[in-house]
Design goal:
Elements (H helix, E strand, L loop, with lengths): L7 E3 L4 H11 L3 E4 L5 H6 L7 E4 L9 E4 L2 E5 L15 H8 L4 H6 L2 H5 L12 H7 L27 H8 L2 E6 L2 E6 H4 L15 E8 L4 E8 L10 E9 L10 E9 L6 E2 L1 H7 L6 H12 L12 H22 L2
Parallel strand pairs: 1-3, 2-3
Antiparallel strand pairs: 4-5, 5-8, 6-7, 6-8, 9-10, 10-11, 11-12
Helix pairs in contact: 9-10, 10-11
Bound molecules: flavin-adenine dinucleotide and iron/sulfur cluster (SF4).
Flavin-adenine dinucleotide binds next to strand 2, helix 2, helix 4, helix 5 and strand 8.
Length: 331
């Protein structure tokens, strides 16, 4: 049985208190929300904080409220609570619902999901397993076992909700010792398996600003081995904006975004796929062009489940299905 190492556990009740505690703890301090990612990682010695600072007692991080141009969703709401947004934001709710099992969704939070550690078959293993093959550069080692001549880590962005946030143009409110800032979701992620977030380690993701649902629609589709449980090995978030608000069948798409999860170290937007949809009515030809455009840069590596060339092929299939669902909703 894997055991947690010893650590101090702190429970601040305000953002200011949490930031002070993190400053005192320094690099050996870590925030935790539901703990469904951090604690398993600590058991495998991926992260070894001496001080763990819980964000769950901070009222400001819970609940949803109206914000300028949309809705602000507190980072500490659970993925189960996220389901309350289904009427206005069905793609966000669906992505949250597709995460793991009900038990994990009752504990796991939106913020934890959006800050989820990247994953790799050579990393998500026990300390002893990793030691036996000699550690890799993401933790304790110097080499990448997936691409041994590579100077960087290729661990995979495996959050289900993050691709949707990037596709719909959500913004994240970050609070740190120097104040707060709003960051577009697309700029919060970095294509690097080790430094996969652009936020500073002491910054707290306070809430997520969802744009008002006026004239656009979005969907999320997920590929995984076991439908009841597994991480995504491919996620497709598709967003389209219509000229007349999306109520009529013949309305043209004025803007679109296709974002892939599970194929890179960040949620990967494919601008060419979005461009292929502009001016279309989501007819078959436009969908095929977008699926082909998304297929080309989709370059999964051999470090998650399933055979990688099959996963690449599935990009076409899943983008097609996602766009067909969007088209079907208008009829
Ligand atoms: C068996 C299993 C299956 C899983 N399947 C999936 C899946 O299919 N899809 C998926 O997306 N995830 C999956 N997960 C991962 C995880 O359960 C979820 O992503 C969950 O939403 C993480 O939220 P949390 O609150 O538990 O995160 P935590 O473990 O509390 O935190 C995760 C990371 O985020 C940081 N963090 C958390 N909140 C904040 C904040 N507000 N500000 C700054 N940093 C913060 C923490 O410091 C930590 O580094 C799975 C996990 C397990 C164990
Ligand atoms: S991609 Fe390479 S460096 Fe990154 S976790 Fe996997 S084996 Fe380690």
């Amino acid at each position: 049985m894997l055991r947690l190492p010893a650590f101090a556990y702190l429970q601040p009740t305000s953002l200011a208190e949490a930031l002070h505690m993190k400053a005192d703890a320094g690099p050996e301090g870590s925030y935790v929300a539901g703990g469904t990612d951090l604690y398993p990682n600590m058991k495998r010695r991926h992260q070894e904080p001496k001080t763990v600072i819980s964000l769950m007692g901070i009222e400001e991080l819970r609940g949803t409220r109206n914000a300028e141009r949309g809705t602000a969703v507190g980072a500490s709401i659970t993925l189960t609570e996220l389901q309350a947004l289904r009427d206005r934001y069905p793609a966000v709710a669906t992505a949250g619902e597709l995460v793991s099992t009900p038990l994990l969704r009752n504990m796991g939070t939106l913020g934890g999901n959006l800050c989820l550690d990247t994953r790799c078959n050579y990393y998500n293993q026990s300390y002893e397993w990793r030691k036996a093959i000699d550690f890799c550069m993401k933790k304790d080692g110097a080499i990448c076992w997936v691409a041994p001549s590579s100077p960087r880590c290729w661990a995979v962005s495996s959050s289900d909700v993050a691709p949707v946030m990037v596709a719909i143009g959500a913004e994240y409110r970050l609070v740190g010792p120097k104040g707060e800032r709003l960051v577009p979701a697309g700029r919060f992620y970095h294509n690097d398996g080790i430094n996969y977030l652009t936020k500073q380690p002491d910054e707290i993701l306070a809430d997520v600003r969802l744009p008002a649902p006026d004239g656009w629609d979005a969907v999320y589709h997920k590929l995984r081995r076991r439908g009841s449980f597994d991480f995504p090995v491919l996620g497709v978030a598709a967003w389209v904006k219509y000229e007349g608000g999306g109520k009529g069948e013949g309305e043209r798409v004025t803007d679109a975004s296709i974002v892939l999860g599970g194929v890179a170290s960040y949620p990967q937007e494919v601008p060419e796929a979005g461009a292929a949809l502009k001016g279309s009515t989501l007819e078959d030809d436009a969908i095929a062009a977008a699926a082909e455009a998304a297929y080309r840069p989709s370059k999964p590596l051999d470090n998650t489940d399933f055979e990688l060339s099959w996963r690449k092929q599935m990009t076409r299939v899943y983008v097609t299905r996602a766009l067909q669902e969007l088209r079907g909703r208008r009829r």
